[in-house]
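Treating backbone geometry as a discrete language has practical consequences that deserve illustration. The amino acid sequence and the backbone structure tokens for this protein are reproduced below.
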Amino acid sequence: MATDAASTASSGHEPLAANTVDATRDGDSKQRGWAITALHYLLDQWFLIALGILILIASQAQVPTRQQSLKETVISYLCVSIIFLITGLTLDTRALIDNYARWQLHLFVQIQCFLMTSAVIVE
């Protein structure tokens, strides 16, 4: 046993069984790493995934013509309000405070958007 260990140490090679076990562990860790990354992505993007699923369901659900105006009102106001509310609630407070300090830049962008939109519509 000592000669076997000494011969592997002097030749610089590990026994074949150890290499096979290490390769299997590397494959398992790569597979687990990919699964963990996918899980983190799904948990991080839960809102967009749920929104996509709901859009698919809504596109397949038919509404009677007498309720079509109610559907348009709900989608136009309620759903958009919920999307903005959830998005606003998930923002980091520190990032909001840091960006409030840049009010001049925000004001400039808002004025430019207003002027550009007005110029395009008038033309």
